[in-house]
Specification:
Low-confidence stretches: 637-645
Structural class: alpha/beta
Number of strands: 24
Radius of gyration: 45 Å
Shape: rod-shaped
Distance between the termini: 45 Å
Strand content: 15-25%
């Protein structure tokens, strides 16, 4: 278990774990089609914000049969006579092609013979049909000719048209779309015909442009119906892209000749009573005033084909599946890195926003270069990976912080506790403080005369009295940067220089001076406590302190249910022996402070000390040079000591 905990804390493991989980989640959602609506929404946004062909099309003119026209003529469907009359007026203007976007599979007399004659005599007139079991056949006169084209439109879920069709089949025969028929007739005059692409005969080439068929999972689609030969619509013809006239204007002779000559002419319905309208990525919502008439939509598709063939425009391309997967993985990995490297909430928010903006800019630029790069899946995976990794690491840190605070918070000052947390990487291993060799100053104190005093007190009074003492002394230790290691009866053990390793001599000197300053402060505190106790009828007390500086081993001791950070080693033993050495020495002093030679060397001129001599301590074969601290030097103050510590 310890190995697993350590393994799952490694940076590379955390990043790859977050990447893998988020990647597989988003990949599964994308493959299942759950994210398709988001990606199609992004496509619509790119279309709406993309570059447009601002000039009115020179090649296509629209003649709309409006509600007003129907009311003026007085009937629907229009008779063959009315349609024939309109066609004759258009033919007189010498257009390159005429698309009759009016579904009718039977003649509507009067005028049927004239309409039939016009179709037979003028192959540039194209009629429409729909394909399928419920389809509408073309007029019988053009059924077996090249003058019949389908007008079927692909509508995506949500009611938006994003794809155009070139070819479609019913399982037996192949048919050409109205837009492609009209564009082909226009291009024949330019010497351009539909050809197979020289590099891939499965693709069609029109002029200088190869139009690749759309597959089921291209772009943001997932398992889309890709029957027929489909391609993406770019909707670059914006605003009012075509000259548009009403049928009444045509029949009354109110249309200028240049609007017809050499143009593609589309005749269709734009009336509420005849449902032939669609919504596009440019529609602001699905209200009735946002739809596009079917005749205009056919014009937009034909115009895009002409732009591809004649103007050097490029079809919207999509990356293959492997590149989409790599793109998704890249952004998922980037999200994991972002979550790993950031802990601050506002910085994390800035990283998330910045990453999303970079992704959006990349996809936007690619779209301007005619590439539809997925946006929604990588955006979600970036966010989920970042949040997941950050949440995972934050959870680990909370547990680590809770453990550290449980161990240290009651034994050190708030400032030291925060410093320990900020520098935890120096001594944490697998989320727990690791054992390490340190150079520290160990401090032992014990009350003189406590045993005699305790025999005269009631138990509760004794505990209250002892707690008052301990609270004061522990507060002084923490105020001087020490760590309260343990309590033993009336004794206190403290460490200065743990758990963070000291790397310089100045830091070691600081710890020693802090320990001695703490002992001197204890003497002053004992004056206050003795005055308080004397008011309650108790005799005064004194304190013995032993301090030694040297190498120790710091680490956790205890069971998993009760851990304690402590120090062990010869330095600890010497400090303890210094505290208990010759208990009669200085028995009249409020605080007797004995230190070793190593501690004295750290004090400099700031404290007065007298040499006791080389003495043998209990349990030690080698003699130790012992000094007694008598107090601060006359010119020294605590402030001056602190200045030295901060050098």
């Amino acid at each position: 278990m310890g190995y697993l905990r350590k393994f799952f804390r490694k940076p590379a493991v955390v990043i790859m774990l977050g990447t893998t989980v988020a990647f597989m989640l988003i990949l599964g959602l994308r493959q299942g089609g759950t994210l398709e609506f988001l990606e199609l929404g992004a496509y619509d946004w790119f279309i709406g914000m993309g570059s447009k062909v601002q000039l009115e099309s020179r090649r296509i003119t629209i003649f709309e049969i409006s509600e007003k026209d129907i009311q003026a003529i007085g009937r629907w469907p229009l008779t063959d006579e009315t349609i024939a009359r309109a066609l004759k007026m258009l033919l007189a203007g010498k257009p390159k092609a005429i698309g009759l976007d009016i579904y009718r599979d039977i003649l509507v007399p009067p005028g049927s013979e004239e309409l039939t004659r016009l179709f037979v005599a003028n192959p540039e007139i194209i009629g429409v049909m729909t394909i399928g079991e419920k389809g509408v056949a073309p007029l019988s006169v053009i059924k077996s000719t090249n003058q019949a084209a389908f007008g079927d439109i692909i509508v995506d879920p949500g009611g938006i048209v994003r794809r155009g069709l070139l070819f479609l089949d019913d399982g037996q025969n192949s048919f050409t779309s109205l837009a492609l028929k009209l564009a082909s007739l226009y291009l024949e005059a330019e010497g351009i015909t539909l050809q197979p692409d020289p590099e891939n005969e499965q693709f069609v080439r029109l002029g200088g442009a190869t139009i690749k068929p759309l597959n089921t999972d291209d772009g943001g689609y997932s398992k889309a119906d890709a029957r027929g030969y489909q391609f993406l619509l770019d909707y670059r013809d914006t605003g009012a892209p075509f000259r548009t006239y009403s049928l009444s204007s045509l029949l009354s002779g109110g249309v200028p000749a240049e609007a017809i000559a050499g143009k593609i002419i589309l005749v269709g319905v734009n009336a509420q009573s005849v449902k032939d309208h669609f919504f596009t990525p440019l529609s602001r919502g699905l209200a009735d005033d946002q739809h596009v008439p079917g005749v205009v939509l056919h014009g937009l598709i034909a115009s895009q084909l002409l732009r591809l063939s004649l103007d050097g425009d490029t079809s919207i391309n999509t990356p293959d599946e492997i590149h989409k997967v790599l793109w998704l993985f890249f952004w998922t990995f980037a999200g994991s890195l972002a979550g790993f490297s950031t802990r601050s909430a506002w910085r994390f928010a800035m990283v998330i926003i910045g990453g999303q903006l970079v992704l959006l800019a990349a996809c936007w630029y690619a779209f301007q270069m005619h590439w539809w790069i997925p946006l929604a899946p990588p955006s979600l995976s970036f966010f989920i990976a970042a949040v997941g990794v950050m949440a995972y690491l934050t959870g680990l840190e909370k547990r680590e912080r809770a453990m550290l605070m449980q161990i240290f918070s009651k034994h050190v000052s708030v400032e030291v506790a925060e410093m320990i947390w900020e520098q935890r990487d120096q001594f944490l291993d697998n989320g727990r403080p690791r054992s390490q060799n340190l150079t520290a100053t160990v401090f032992f104190s014990d009350l003189r005369g406590f045993t005699t005093m305790s025999e005269k007190m009631e138990p509760q009074e004794l505990i209250d009295w002892l707690n008052t003492y301990m609270e004061s002394m522990a507060g002084l230790i923490m105020a001087h940067g020490g760590v309260v290691d343990s309590y033993s009866g009336d004794g206190i053990k403290a460490d200065f220089g743990v758990p963070l390793p000291r790397k310089t001599e100045d830091e070691i000197r600081c710890d020693a001076m802090n320990a001695v300053a703490c002992a001197v402060a204890m003497e002053k505190e004992m004056e206050r406590l003795n005055a308080l106790w004397s008011e309650k009828g108790h005799s005064g007390m004194g304190v013995r302190v032993g301090i030694f500086t040297g190498p120790v081993v710091g680490g956790l001791l205890g069971s998993s249910q009760r851990l304690k950070y402590t120090t062990i080693g010869d330095t600890v033993n010497i400090a303890s022996r210094l505290e208990s050495y010759d208990k009669d020495m200085g028995k009249d002093a409020l605080c007797r402070i004995l230190i070793g030679d190593s501690t004295l060397q750290c004090l400099g001129p700031h404290y007065k000390a007298e040499k006791i001599g080389e003495v043998g301590l209990k349990g030690k074969e080698q003699k130790i040079t012992v000094h007694r601290v008598l107090g601060e030097s006359p010119a020294s103050t605590i402030t001056q000591v602190q200045e030295v510590l901060n050098e």
